[in-house]
Amino acid sequence: xxxxxxxxxxxxxxxxxxxxxxxxxxxxxxxxxxxxxxxxxxxxxxxxxxxxxxxxxxxxxxxxxxxxxxxxxxxxxxxxxxxxxxxxxxxxxxxxxxxxxxxxxxxxxxxxxxxxxxxxxxxxxxxxxxxxxxxxxxxxxxxxxxxxxxxxxxxxxxxxxxxxxxxxxxxxxxxxxxxxxxxx
Length: 184
Hints:
The chain has 184 residues and is an alpha+beta fold. It contains seven helices and eight strands. It has a single domain (3-183), classed as Gcn5-related N-acetyltransferase (GNAT) (Aminopeptidase, 3-Layer(aba) Sandwich). The strands form two sheets. A five-stranded antiparallel beta sheet has the order 1-2-3-4-5, sandwiched between helices. α2 crosses α4 and α5 packs across α6 (137-146).
């Protein structure tokens, strides 16, 4: 992905993946400030504040400008319903995401992730990592549907919980991705 790609929206059948920006902060905050959403994430603090959201957006924009990361708001009918992004582009890209509870189970995250992965692999990436906290069966289903495979289990510090939590590392290779897309 080029720096220009990082700044461009990605359009799917139902969604727009829009680079995160401050005018989306309140709506994104309203959705992530839900324990049932945040408890499955490893990095954000709990409780989560609007200031945390503004700081994350500022860090995201700086990382995008430097070509390291690409974080997007997932937009449905003009309003954000979650976020998705690729971090560590220069050191080994990793996919991360969250979705507001009212939108679970409708295929939105699978659609958003497929669009972002299509761009990543089209740009020449060979592998993308992901993962999930143990017990997050919905996220595991999404990753398996996309072709990710569990490659490791370990403990990671989950900041919202304030302690180490079991985590499953997953990875998806470009060859497997392209083969699965052709078969679909």
